[in-house]
Records
---
Amino acid sequence: MTKLPQALLPPSASLEALQGNSRATIEWDKFAVALRRYPRSILVALLSAWTLLAAALWLALIIGIIGAIVGASYVGSSTFTLGTGQAGGILGSIAGFFIGAGIAFVFVYGQGIRSAGPHILISLLIGLVFAMVLTMLLIWLEHWLMYFRGYRPPSRREAAIIAPVLADVQAAMGLDSLPQILVADHGALGAWAHTRHVVLSHRLLDEPREQLAAVLAHELHHWRSGDSVALLLVSMCAWPLAFTANAIVCIRNVAGKFGAFITGSLLWPFTVISRFIISPVLALESRKYEYEADAAAVRAGFGLGMMQTLEALKIFEPARTGWETVVNASHPPNEYRIEAVEEDMAVIATAPAPSEIEPKPRRRTRQTSKAMSSSGDAD
């Protein structure tokens, strides 16, 4: 990567801050953080990808359709009047579908789990180890994958915009190190935190300084807290689902809606699992971390910029792939985030200054009591 001339940057900017630390190193503590912050999402992703859930859904649909036909014909033929026959046929079709689908799903998925017995734990453990290996590989290759996706180092003009803001954010958040900052040229307006990089869209640099600082603080908190590693690990635990979601989007872009319809019709169980199982469980854990990242920006002094960003952009982490659409569906509503930012700013505004806080009385330890008593005896 070509280094930026130091003379072309403003005095407060540093070349090291822009380039960050993108060496191929693995921070092992981030995996412990991922397991601690997203345990339910990781478990559900493993259960969804490493069991017969997709096959059970497919068979449930087929048997459900057969049950609907049998139910409609049986109930409809057992009635006498035309109106009653139509109503009975509809009710029989619905009942037959759900009964057939339920029996098929329980038989395939339940029987598979029961027959596996303790071996299911071994399968999930293998899946977790496999996911961790893939995650480490992607972290190691991330520097090259970023350029493969079209992200690039900032130009001299962009560096002059980013560097002083980044230096202020780093000082306000007390960060000892920084990820490498890259720029995306596509039309989306947003920012994304990766495991060793933070990507800013080119259009984001045209936003006011306070908004850019708030977005940087938000993304840097995700990076520091290990959320990027955690979400990558979740996606690797559910890699067939992530691959399918991305494939449907790619086929839609290449072959149009008809190609996406054919692909979606064949792979619909993966879409159902991603949207209605993975995403709701992920929302239970990731929403509080989105509030946490917003609060970190407020504590760093960028609350007004965060509020302006949420009001203007609505979402500043837009989805770039099909799987990211599933992940972003777990974000809290923007209005709730704005209210939370307002509450955090009000708390900070009403908090007493450090000098105004009365020191807490010290607990009298046994040694202190003895010292006081001995000094009293000496007097």
---
Amino acid sequence: MRRLQPMQTTRDHQKWTDHEEATLRQLVAEALDYAEIGRRMKRTEESIRQHVYKFIGPKTRRREWTTREMAEARRLREEGLSYAQIGQRIGRNSSTVYQALNRT
């Protein structure tokens, strides 16, 4: 009896194509988080994170806070939400939220 191989759901461990490189750069420029980029590209979040860091550079992910984001983060903090909960709601890392809300 022949055993079926599990269906591969991601493209991890496969070489990145030129088209994927261009798509990744575009999605990073749109400031999507790594999890969303991974879903769209059928790669894991960690694969996206590593590829951005190695080949695009970590500074490309930095984006300024909008006035609306800061107001929302402050409002949520006043409501008692944790930095992690705020980060999940506005699509930012919890340490980034902490730093933004505690700047002098």
---
Amino acid sequence: MRTGKDISSSNVLDYRFWSKYPSLNVKQRGTISVTTTDDSFPSAVTQTVHHNFGYKPQFMAFTKSYTSQNIDKYIFNLADYVNLDFYMEFEDVGANITEEVRGFVTENDFTVSANLFSAVSGDQQGLIYTYDIDYILFMEEAKPI
């Protein structure tokens, strides 16, 4: 039950887990690391996990963002862990920082990409940062809505 809620509630939102509703089944989990580069013209760096399921599984993936590690959380109010498909732009001491971390699945692979750079007077400069991405691949297939 959620804090302050009673077990006799019939509202599904009061529960953390309710056996009347199906839960996703974990098929594979792990951690994959992606390190961005300090190139003058940075592009996304990718890493791939080969799952070979033969279908696109539903997935969840989280990482600690550069932003939460290097910028005061009280100013930006960001969580330590962010879900993939994270994009952030902010100004830090005169430099515009852009951070992007993405993930996607295919029938055989789970791929993550990361790009992190600063721009001063229109020039881009990559920043080196390692994202340790915790991921879960579920048994259930991802289907379009």
---
Amino acid sequence: MIRSLFLCLLLYYCTNVQSQAGNIQVYYDENGNETSSDKATSYGIFYQQDGLYCIKKYSNKTKNIVSETWYNDSLYTISHGPYKSYYAEGNLQWDGWFSGGKREGIWKNYSSRGELEDSSLFKKGAYYEKYEFAFGKIFTATIISPDNNTVFRTSYYQDGSKLIEGRQNNSGHWIDTVKLYERDGTYYTKIFDDKGTLIVNNNPASLNPAYNTTPKTSGKSPAPITPSFPGGQPQFDYYVENRIQNPIRRRYKNLDIFPATSVSTIIFDSEGRVKDVIILQSVHPTIDAELRRALKNMPKWNMNGFIGAEFRLTYTLRIQ
């Protein structure tokens, strides 16, 4: 009896120590499927602690940690507890928490340089708030409506002052009254219907004679001013494809956000030079910065008789 009890205790101790030490090892291919060690890109070590189960995955090449996931079942199917994932060089990428297989609470996403890129609040797997950062400062805040049909979004200039705020529908179109702020804090409004169609434009550029964009011509139907890229629309499309799409796709090919749509307002001076680029619909902080860089480096546009201090054009760009 005593001998049997001793053997049971010894077996329990050895099993528990093996579990804590992580002696169970499984190899995975690049798609996360189990494979042999010679074909693996990563391997996982299994742990058990305080009634929870953990898998730590490591790179088969660098031996750096890839991810750490906790579960509440011995089959390792229901994520429950802290979660962390890492870049290839070992820096933290994602830091969050699972509850019953769904994301819960604050989730933070870091760049490979260690900079906070976004922070989101999740409730039962759905995110309710999201804050995106660039250069250490918040540039977009998004709050989900209770009915989950619209969001209230605020974008900021790099100095932290407001750029634009208002509601968007599920398609990402602005709806209702939207405020657009100047650098000095003053703002004007635009009003949209529930489908995103502009109804009222209170932009001073359209109200103030000093910003008149209609050429002085004779006749009853003056042609509207439309600045153009040198060589016309085909050359602009070629510029976008070769200066924006390909470099972004090559550099960020591992990001799970493509294809995506960016909406940007380009502000030109009276001579056709780009003064500023305002991202109205973000794709990703680092990609937004690349868009600004590429668009600001465009050659001078043909202003086609424009008279005024500045001209604004809004473009929808598809990022592949």
